[in-house]
Design goal:
heterodimer, A: alpha+beta, Beta-Lactamase, Helix Hairpins, Heat Shock Protein 90, 3 domains, 5-stranded antiparallel β-sheet, 5-stranded mixed β-sheet, 13 helices, B: Arc Repressor Mutant, subunit A, 2 domains, 5-stranded parallel β-sheet, 8 helices
């Protein structure tokens, strides 16, 4: 019972054991039925052969006499044949159906005699009567000729009481069923134990997995000692844990980053306001502080909007309003907009190429705008920013490149991280460090990605890769 | 102009009332949905500013019941900016919505847009003081001299002349003139404004384009 406790109907152990038990029942029942039938047949065959043998013997005895009257006068001639065979019954009948002699208390069954004319003379093809519930005799009827006259004949009816054979079969059946019952129980129990043992690695795995919580995400399932079939699962599970661990780490980094990013501006706002309120000032001073506060509030509001967008994009909650977008039109608009700021440093924004994609126009503007704005921001005076649309077979690329200090290898993998700034100083004129993270999220929402290549003091290129569902549509 | 503000957050309600009063509105303030609906149905308001999350009766319900009898323009304020929320508001019959945090100048601009809806058409030639702009002939003049403007500078000036006396935020300007529909680099707008100002104000005694720090720009005649 201990084994059964805690066993759920849909558990693997239960299912396998159950199927195994069913299989065992079918196999054992099949074997039992076959053996029973075989024994029954054999017994029948034995009886039949015995009866046929006896009929032959009677025929032989009949040849020794020449008239039917002799049967009555010398019954010993026939009775001797069945002496020592307590189960045998005998009756001899003439052609009119009169009983010439019979075993004391026995009457040949009527069915057997109903059409005595058609009864064959060949004993091997004698008419048979099988035992039934009412009538426990295996009977046979056959004609036997007297002497050598070949004229007078007598109907030999022999019957074998099968009670003994029947009771043998009944005992056999009972033993068989009992054996079957215990075999099935034994097989099911064994199956259960074997399956439990066999599934132990799975249980161990489950125990390990249940130990894993947010604070113990480093724990891994043992892949090396897992059985072949589970190794792949364990590997996939571990890989999932790895990804979880990474995003979890990033999430908690993100939360602490948010706290840090908010602390500085709020500290400024509080301090500034407290100082200005500490004594009476003229209106102009109040105005200056309020205006400066407003700048700070705007930055905070913007940061909140961007963080909300990132959070929603992560959960894929931000719906895409996808529409066909002509890239050249959008790119030209964006470059015209940023060209005004670029003019200040004699930077020229040069666009090339054309193409169209299906995208959310506003998000696309935002991604491209961020890249162009960054490029202009980091370009030296008197240089060029290139924004090119490139059509590939399976994707459309939008490349924004500029000359400048470049991004060193230690930073390049992290530039798309939230709040990541290459020079860790928080500058009041720059954003919150979310620009490139936004670009990355926007590209992911579009099923694409963003990549960056940079050479120190040479060219830095950011590329947006938009996949094309049907390449033929673009051209 | 009569405005109704339905807002349960005291600070928000107070500054909205102050701001709208100073911009020429007669303002009533309700702090829950039941009072808000009652005022909205009985007072003759030109505009209603409605918060979504309200005690008593939420903004959706107030709007639904209001729309059974009245078509007063309604601007929704909401801290949640799920698209379903916006769609719901607009489907229930709101005329516009703003997501918190928003700039006050933005709210004012949107209210004015709603109030202007269906009103008299703009005159053929727009003017302020001695500055004139003819959108059809694409000509701008100040006093006797013609001003040379690029296409975008023309659109920018056109926008300011249409919205005289209104503070326009940088984001709003970027959206209207350059079709930049995101939190774009607002420094760019500053550059554009500087250039436009150089063309229309520099060398003239009376300045028309003014900077409101932290809020944006305004075109008006000041003494």
């Amino acid at each position: 019972m201990l084994l059964i406790s805690g066993l759920k109907l849909n558990s693997l152990t239960f299912r396998i054991s159950f199927l195994f038990a069913i299989t065992a029942i079918i196999l054992l029942a099949g074997t039992g039925t076959f053996l029973y039938k075989f024994l029954e047949q054999e017994l029948m065959k034995r009886d039949h052969e015995e009866l046929i043998g006896k009929v032959d013997l009677f025929r032989h005895q009949l040849t020794k006499i020449n008239s039917i009257g002799q049967i009555v006068t010398a019954p010993g001639l026939f009775r001797d044949v069945i002496i020592g065979h307590p189960h045998l019954r005998l009756a001899l009948l003439d052609e009119q159906g009169n009983t010439l002699m019979s075993s004391s208390d026995w009457k040949p069954p009527a069915e057997l005699l109903a059409n005595s004319i058609s009864i064959d003379t060949e004993p091997s093809r004698a008419t048979m009567l099988m035992p039934t519930l009412d009538q426990p005799y295996h009977a046979i009827a056959a004609w036997g000729a007297l002497g050598d006259s070949r004229v007078n004949r007598v109907l030999i009816v022999l019957a074998l009481n099968v009670d003994e054979a029947q009771s043998l079969l009944v005992r056999y059946k009972r033993t068989l069923l009992t054996t079957l019952f215990f075999s099935v129980i034994a097989a099911t129990t064994l199956a259960f134990i074997i399956v439990r043992r066999g599934l132990r690695p799975l249980r161990i795995m489950a125990e390990t997995a249940s130990d894993i919580s947010a604070s113990h995400l480093q724990k891994r399932l043992g892949v090396a000692d897992a059985p072949e079939e589970l190794r792949e699962l364990a590997g996939a599970f571990n890989a999932m844990l790895g990804r979880l661990y990474n995003s979890f780490a990033r999430l908690s980094d993100f939360s602490s980053d948010i706290a840090h990013e908010l602390r500085t501006p709020i500290n400024n706002l509080m301090g500034q306001t407290q100082v200005i309120l500490s004594r009476t000032r003229n209106a102009e001073e109040y105005r200056t502080v309020l205006e400066s506060n407003l700048d700070e509030y705007e930055r905070l509001a913007r940061m909140i909007r961007e963080m909300l967008f990132l959070a929603k994009a992560d959960n894929a909650q931000e719906p895409l309003h996808a529409e066909p977008v002509d890239l050249k039109t959008e790119l030209d608009k964006i470059s015209e907009f940023y060209q005004m700021a670029a003019d200040e440093n004699d930077i020229k924004i040069i666009t090339s190429g054309s193409g169209s994609i299906t995208a959310d126009r506003i998000l696309l503007q935002r991604a491209v705008g961020n890249l162009v704005s960054n490029a202009v921001h980091h370009s030296p005076p008197n240089s060029e920013v290139h924004a090119d649309i490139i059509l590939n077979v399976t994707s459309v690329e939008l490349r924004v490149s500029n000359q400048g200090p470049g991004i060193s290898t230690e930073h390049i993998d992290r530039v798309f991280d939230r709040f990541y700034r290459i020079n860790s100083k928080r500058q009041s004129d720059s954003g919150a460090g979310l620009g490139l993270a936004l670009v990355k999220s926007i590209m992911q929402l579009h099923g694409g990605h963003v990549s960056v290549e940079s050479e120190i003091n040479k060219i830095t290129t950011f590329t947006l890769h938009f996949p094309i569902a049907d390449p033929a549509v673009v051209r | 102009m009569k405005a109704l503000i339905v807002e349960d957050e005291t600070k928000t309600g107070d500054y909205l009332r102050k701001g709208l009063s100073e911009n020429g509105f007669t303002v009533d303030l309700a702090t829950d949905g039941v009072d808000g609906l009652h005022l909205a149905l009985t007072g003759e308001y030109d505009i209603i500013v409605l918060d979504v999350t309200l005690p008593g009766k939420d903004g959706w319900n107030v709007l639904t019941e209001l729309r059974r009898s009245q078509q007063t323009p309604v601007i929704f304020l909401t801290a949640r900016d799920k698209v379903e929320d916006r769609v719901k508001g607009l489907e229930l019959g709101a005329d516009d919505y703003l997501v918190k945090p928003f700039a006050f100048s933005e709210l004012l601009a949107r209210i004015r847009t709603l109030l202007r809806r269906g009103k008299v058409q703009q005159p053929d030639v727009l003017k302020i003081a001695d500055l004139e702009l003819d959108p059809l002939r694409r000509r701008a003049t100040r006093g006797q001299s013609r001003i040379d403007l690029t296409a975008k500078e023309f659109s920018l000036l056109h926008l300011f002349l249409r919205r005289q006396g209104e503070v326009l935020s940088r984001t709003f300007i970027a959206e209207q003139v350059w079709d930049m529909n995101f939190d774009s680099d607002t420094n760019v707008v500053e550059v554009a404004m500087r250039r436009l100002r150089a063309k229309i104000d520099d060398g003239f005694g009376q300045k028309l384009l003014h900077t409101i720090r932290g809020m944006g720009y305004i075109m008006e005649e000041r003494d």
